[in-house]
Amino acid sequence: MDVYALIGNPVGHSLSPPMHEAGYDAVGLDAKYVTFEPATDAGAAAVDAADTLGVDGINVTAPFKQDVLGAVEPAPLAERIGAVNTIDFTGETPTGHNTDAVGAVRALRHHDVTLDGSAVVVGAGGAGRAAAFGLADEGMTVRIANRTETRAHDLADAVPGASGHGLDGLAELLADADVLVNATSVGMDEDETPVPAGALHGDLAVLDAVYSPIETRLLQDAAAAGARTVDGAWMLLYQGVEAFEIWTDRDAPVSAMNEALRAGLGSDAPARD
Ligand code: NAP
Question: Which of 8, 42, 168, 232 lies at a CB distance of 3.0 to 4.6 Å from 38, suitable for a disulfide?
Answer without folding.
Answer: 42
